[in-house]
Amino acid sequence: MIVTAMDVYKLLPKTNCGICGEASCMAFATKLSEKEMELSLCTQMMDEELEKLKNILAPAVSEVTIGTGDKAITIGGDEVLYRYELTYYNPTALVVDVSDDLEESELEERVKTIKDTEFERTGEKLTLDAIAIRNKSGNSEKFVETVKKVKDANLPLLLCSFNPDSMKAALKIVGSDRPLIYATTEYNIEEMAALALEYDCPITLFIPNDLDKMKELSNVLRSKGIKDIVLDPGTFVDAGIGDSLDNFIMIRRQAIEENDEDFRFPIMGVPAVTWISSKEDKVTTGMREATIAATLMNKYADILIMHGADIWELIPVLTLRQSLYTDPRKPQAVDPGIYEFGDVNENSPVLMTTNFALTYYTVEGDLKSGNVNCYLLVLDTGGRAVDVSVAGNQLNAKSVTDLIRNSGIENGVNHQKLIIPGLAAPVSGEIEDESGWEVMVGPRDSSGIPDFLTEKW
Amino acid sequence: MDKMMQLLKLLEKTDYIEINEFRMDFDELEFHLMPAVQQIVGKTREESIIGKEVIPSTPAVGEFVPPVHEYPGKIAEVQLGAGTRQTVYLGGQRALYRFEEPQPNPPVVTFDVFDIPMPGLPRPIREHFSDVMDHPGDWAKKAVHDFGANMVTIHLIGTGPKVMDKSPKDAAADIEEVLQAVDVPLVIGGSGDPKKDPIVLEKAAEAAEGERCLLASANLDLDYKKVAKAALDYNHAVLSWAITDVNMQKTLNRYLMKEGLKPEDIVMDPTTCALGYGIEFSVDVITRTRLAALRGDKDLQMPMSSGTTNAWGSREAWMKKDEWGPTKYRGPIWEIITGLTMMLCGVDIFMMLHPLSVQILKEIGDTFTRNYLTTKVPDISEWITQLEG
Q1: Stretch (H or E) spanning B39
Q2: Same domain for A306 and A346?
Q3: A52 in the same domain as A68
Q4: Which chain B residue is nearest to residue A270, measuring alpha carbons?
């Protein structure tokens, strides 16, 4: 369900008092509907309207917070089935597991890897969100020992055990840190639900491949007053992934289109199960795990437990998350014009790229990390990448010539040489003819710019 | 504020706003364009044509009823391969997901083969094909016999005026070589030169008369009429390529149909932006295209194609960088996830390069033709203790 600013506006006091910080109630309504401001900022609400508004502003998929403090993560919160309709909220949490039967040194090493995993792209640092501790030993003392050690990592925790005694023992240690309980099943629901209530922790309901039962037991949890529920309908690899997809999609449709209260919760996928049945080598298994993670993330997974922690396996999954959770309402373009990097003078090279945000930030990152001194002309291609705008004819002789003339670069340098992206090579000749500048075709990937300039400039 | 409320009241029952010959003079004006209005304006095109799919009414409390929709539209089924070729069918869906109705045909992968040795191909690809890259026929044979390709795409890159400027006649000879070497259906691609491609495709189409290949591509920047005519004259299908723009795609499809092609003769390429390089734009466009088709938009009821090979251009796929791990693993995975993401939005045919990527994508795609809850799934109820390490 998409809540419109109109729906919200009708319930606001319409006094335009400005106390919330917005100029008008309409502006506040717009921000509320886009989840950019908090309802509590309005001090003039009547109780009845306040309740109604709280209700309509509650997301179709409820938000569940795991952990406390600045490392806490929130999952869920989605309003739509397709990102183009609005945007997806709260990026999928990526969790890596540790087992409670690891040697101390192995455990330390693995926790460090999880904490240190970081991949920077387009100016953003992409990282993992939480650690899942598995009670592999089945022994509650071992579980507690591991929990105590991992607690210091200061990341949100998932406590994975179907044994209520183990869970209780672990919650005694970290119950006040809001770990996610994994999991209640049809066999332990009374004990696990009691623990979730006692420690006020979110809880996962794990019912593989049976949405009838999942609905029934979700209802049981809700009727006990539990509000923070995560649904795991089972992750199946190989041909079973078809059923997992069906389950994920049906759950989300029930939440968004049917307003089915029993399914209005975040969904968990466990790509880690890929490693259980795999007869393939470690690399292929890692690729398959990343594939399963990407499959489920595309279709509504709000949290994923992974087992493989190799960076090459995590990079594509982190990148997909960054892509899918970009807000489509925000322009994907930077301002066209002239940009300076490092110390520039009249002899500095002049490079060109397009104003597609991803392209620009990639080039910017490479120029900065390569300590390049240069001018960068940014062409308005309506936010299209280089190859796309060459194909679509936004990057052509005329547009580039206009950019040279209007940017003022002709007054900034005493040469007439333009370095264009390698992917724009097909139009290099016509740019020369039209602009009168000498055109040099640069590397196809901007990571090659520093070397290119060393050699050719 | 009264006026505002009146306007809102009016808008409540409005699905469609059309403003004609609108003019406004002002010095300074502050707009709060409400998202509701944006959405209404944005949606009119799709909704005015339809038939939205029918959403079932709310079930009785406590009962789970699978949320199966009924759609007024159907995707055309396109046959590729005829004459001496095996046959492959694309499309034919009447639903978005298999729990509503399984796809009649699984997604298909077509292996990329080139008419020149392509020294620029990434090492993980060259590793598999370096012994056959001098002859497109041998290359195609290896793709089919060693890697189980259902289809082969022969890219006539060498015809590019700035590549080798091979003649349309040379291109036709390459096509004949590949036709002789394998009996799977072919996609025939040009060099991307808008002037030369139509002439090259015409000759290639003639050489492959009656074999029902997919001519790639027709777009608004070249003589698409020539490509359409070649397809009609020699019994082929046409790839209709638009650049991440649903309206451009509609326009081009309409033009192609005006030339005499039927939806059964057209496959759309809405453009695949690689993972990390704008894939979200492709996700949106492809999702909207398939939804519009199922909801009844006849201009978009064709199967879709993805140039998944684009993924190899991403630096994460090829750039040597120790802290990112071996490129050997990164390349295939980048191609898989790019293709997979497109497949989950409804794409039917994938142009790909790496054998492992092809295999993994096909395995997931094959599940789309099966019914919900008919696959034997492993028992994962004890996964916490089953998982080693």
Answers
A1: helix B35-49
A2: no
A3: no
A4: B383
Please spell the DSSP secondary structure of B94-124, one letter per residue: SSSSTTTS--SS--EEEEEEESS--TTS-HH
- Residue A99 sits in the same domain as residue A188: yes
Q: Are A383 and A333 in contact (CB under 8 A)?
A: yes
Stretch among A45-59, A95-109, B96-110, B299-313 having the lowest mean pLDDT: A45-59
Interface residue A342 vs chain B (CB under 8 A): no
- Do A162 and A260 have their domain in common? yes
| Domain extent listing, chain B | 77-369
Q: Which residue of B has its CA nearest to A325?
A: B280
Average pLDDT over residues A13-32: 91
Residue closest to B300 by CA, chosen among B347, B346, B253, B255: B253
User: Which pLDDT does position B11 carry in this prediction?
Assistant: 66
- Classify residue A70: in a domain, yes or no: yes
CB atoms within 10 A of CB B232: 16
Say which range, A350-359, B53-62, B108-117, B128-137, has the weakest mean pLDDT.
Answer: B53-62
Residue B13: pLDDT band (50, 70, 90) is: low
What pLDDT shows up at residue B37?
40
Whether A356 and B278 lie within 8 Å, measured CB to CB: yes
Determine the longest span between alpha carbons in chain A, in angstroms.
79
DSSP B50-80: --PPBPPPPPPTT-------B-S--PPEEEE
Same domain, A53 and A111: no
Supply the pLDDT for residue A46. Answer: 87
Closest CA to B211 of B192, B190, B191, B230: B230
Q: Are residues A24 and A86 in the same domain?
A: no
Average pLDDT score over residue span B121-133: 91
| Rounded Cα gap, residues A94 and A156, in angstroms | 11
Statement to judge: residues A184 and A287 lie in one domain: yes
Domain that holds residue A15: 5-57
For domain B77-369, the question of CATH label 3.20.190.10 is answered with: no
Q: What is the pLDDT of residue B35?
A: 40
Q: How many CB pairs under 8 A join A and B?
A: 248
Q: Of the candidates A138, A208, A254, which has its C-beta nearest B380's C-beta?
A: A208
Task: Tell me how many domains chain A contains.
Answer: 3
Angle at A225 between CA A91 and CA A254, to 5 degrees: 50
Is residue A331, in this structure, part of any structural domain at all? no
Residues of chain A numbered 395-454 and touching chain B (CB < 8 Å): 426, 444-445, 447
Q: Which residues of B touch A254 (CB under 8 A)?
A: 64, 67
Same domain, A123 and A29: no
Q: Give the distance from CA B121 to its chain's centroid.
A: 22
Which of B281, B333, B385 lies closest to A290 in CB terms?
B333
Q: Which residue among A138, A215, A328 sits closest to B284, beta carbon to beta carbon?
A: A328
Q: What is the CATH number of the domain that holds A265?
A: 3.20.20.20
Chain B touched by A366 (CB under 8 Å): no
Structural domain ending residue among the three candidates A276, A293, A324:
A324
- Supply the ipTM of this predicted assembly: 0.88
Q: Which residue of B has its CA nearest to A425?
A: B162
Give how far A344 is from chain B: nearest CA, Å: 28
Q: Measured on CA atoms in the order B126, A294, B245, B293, is the torsion positive or negative? A: positive
Question: What pLDDT shows up at residue B56?
Answer: 58
**Does residue A219 form part of some domain?**
yes
A270, part of any domain: yes
Cβ within 8 Å, pair B324-A119: yes
Q: To the nearest whole angstrom, how far is the Cα of A285 from the nearest Cα of chain B?
A: 11
pTM equals 0.88
Distance from CA of A299 to the nearest CA of B (A): 8
Tell me, what CATH number does A377's domain have? 3.40.50.11600
Q: Which of A160, A209, A287 sits opposite B360 (nearest CB)?
A: A287
Q: A19: domain CATH number?
A: 1.10.15.40
Nearest to B99 among A4, A241, A246 (CB): A246
